[in-house]
Amino acid sequence: MASICRLSVLCGAGGARALFLRTPVVRPAQISVFLQDQPTIGWCGIQHIHLSPSRHSGSKAASLHWTGERVVSVLLLGLLPAAYMNPSATMDYSLAAVLTLHSHWGLGQVVTDYVKKDALQTAAHMGLLALSALTFAGLCYFNYHDVGICKAVGMLWKL
Length: 159
Description:
globular; disordered N terminus; single chain; two-stranded antiparallel ribbon
């Protein structure tokens, strides 16, 4: 109760307006003009902050890709227990597709974040695409010619 009373003292007599709303708000555009290409001291000497919009910002494709990544992650949360409880060929191929897609998108972000030169980044993305295709083909081969992903994990747990 004391904290509520103390908060009402900070917010003013009306108590309805928050303390944040009475402070002046600095617009992001004003900050970006101030900080654009200004040197900041970092670990490796001088670094520059570039606040200009990237070529993908604001695009509908980037938003849909982000939503797709979240859908695949949530799908995995339900698919893994379902595959354990009901191992079947459908579950095996679903796991092969979703696990490959999830790992492809995750490793793609690693390549984007850590490979800086454009030529190397393109080569790394092509290598990742080949690796993902090979992974999916290998998992499908394993599902068709062997016991499948679900039963293989069950067999590993029995060891």
